[in-house]
Design brief:
There is one protein chain. The protein is an alpha+beta fold. It has eight helices and two strands. The protein has a two-stranded antiparallel sheet. It starts with a helix and ends with a helix. The relative contact order is 0.06.
Length: 170
């Protein structure tokens, strides 16, 4: 008797690795939904399998690494800047190549990429979202008894209720 298809898929993390090597899946960044679709299950089922089958979770993390590495490399290039080579060809009227020129154009570093990189790599130095504010001086309060405060609050509430009643009548 044949094993359950679901059980077979979950027990076979090598299937996921083999799928990732196929040409049509080579450039897939492999989100959880994409992995679930390749395995033919829902994302909820996939996440249950991750808990039940650690090898499957390890395989999923393994096939995600190339996409993560590509993003890290692209972020690094955006942080430090890089050079792009453009080929400029000059043709005559018949379409023959007269001159081929390679032009190197620098791409300047992106401050936002640098900030992102530093905030994640050195948060203690660069994550300065929190501000320390010191207050000095004294705070003056009036000594109004609680009963008086309650009376004032009730008077304000009564005035607002009366205004709201007048507004609805007009």
């Amino acid at each position: 008797m044949r094993k359950s298809c679901t059980k077979w898929r979950a027990d076979n993390p090598d299937k996921l690795r083999r799928m990732a090597l196929r040409d049509e899946y080579k450039d897939v960044p492999w989100t959880g939904r994409q992995i679930a679709a390749v395995l033919g299950v829902t994302p909820d089922t996939l996440y249950r399998w991750y808990k039940k089958y650690p090898d499957l979770k390890a395989a999923a993390e393994e096939i995600r690494e190339p996409a993560d590495d590509a993003v890290v490399n692209a972020l690094y290039k955006n942080c430090v800047g890089y050079t792009v080579e453009e080929v400029k060809e000059t043709l005559d009227a018949q379409g023959n190549l007269l001159r081929k020129e390679v032009i190197k154009k620098p791409v300047t570093p992106m401050p936002n990429a640098q900030t992102l990189w530093l905030r994640n790599r050195r948060p203690e130095e660069w994550n300065n979202d929190k501000q320390q504010i010191e207050l000095s001086g004294s705070l003056k309060t009036t000594d109004i008894p609680d009963d008086e405060l309650i009376n004032r609050a009730e008077a304000v509430i009564a005035r607002r209720a009366k205004r709201a009643e007048c507004d609805t009548q007009n």
